[in-house]
Amino acid sequence: MNSKTTNNIATGIIYVLVAAVVGILIFLLGYILITGLPHVSWHFLTSAAQSFRAGGGIRDQLFNSLYLLVLTLIISFPIALGSGIYLSEYAPNNWLTGLIRTAIEVLSSLPSVVIGLFGYLLFVIQFRMGFSILAGAIALTFFNLPLLTRSVEESLEDVSDLQREAGLSLGLSHWKTITGIVLPAAVPGILTGIILSAGRVFGEAAALIYTAGQSAPIVNYSNWNPMSTTSFLNPMRPAETLAVHIWKVNTEGVTPDALSISSGTSAVLIIVILLFNLSARLLGNWMYKKMTATK
């Protein structure tokens, strides 16, 4: 067998494997969307969930998912930004840096149910937060930090050293060079990482079962006082998300139309995650062109 034939065979195998992966993805997405979209309507998106009768919606679960996502990013992004800047710009190549990177890799490989159990024992019980949005957001911070930190670090490392040298040659301090030159140039990649991590957090369920709870109490969407127990902005209230809602209606077996609700909720969840990924690509490309003046 000559080298050309071997190359063609290897190329064909690679194409087949790639086609298999794409085919599986298209099949999963197509099945979920085809079975779920017929159950999605304006009433489904804007009405409250029902436990013992048919016709419920996902209004509260959809809002809880978005609220929890925003709160998680508010907590995790400053930590990830500081960690990424340290690892990229300040950290020496020694055992401490290696230990930090190993810790990040280990944290990223932990099952989400383990993180949820940790959050339940520490935040829900030990700190007496109860099942709440805040406890869920803190637990998801541990889940989100590795990906977000790595994204910030890689975005900073992708910035050319010539830009750093230019800033230092103008007499700028190291910190001013980072904040004034390097960080703005890395914004497209950082935003892409934020949106991708947001999609991952949005679809999380196992960690939230133990921390944010499995109930969606009726809240007053006109009450803007976050200290009120009926306010939709109260971070100490339980909050059932879309992913948890899918698991709940299928395990409890008390909702007559559980199959249609879970199918519709799955379709909404998939669409939102696809929008996160699509917006990450579009926003990253737009920011790159904007900041590099390319057309």
TrEMBL record:
Gene3D superfamilies given in the database record: MetI-like (1.10.3720.10)
Descriptive protein name: Phosphate transport system permease protein PstA
Principal location listed in the UniProt entry: membrane
Transmembrane parts of this sequence: 12-34, 66-87, 99-123, 129-148, 178-198, 258-280
Lineage: Bacteria, Bacillati, Bacillota, Bacilli, Lactobacillales
Membrane topology value: Multi-pass membrane protein
Location relative to the cell: Cell membrane
Keywords: Cell membrane, Membrane, Transmembrane, Transmembrane helix, Transport
Residues in ABC transmembrane type-1 domain copies: 62-280
Organism: Lentilactobacillus diolivorans DSM 14421
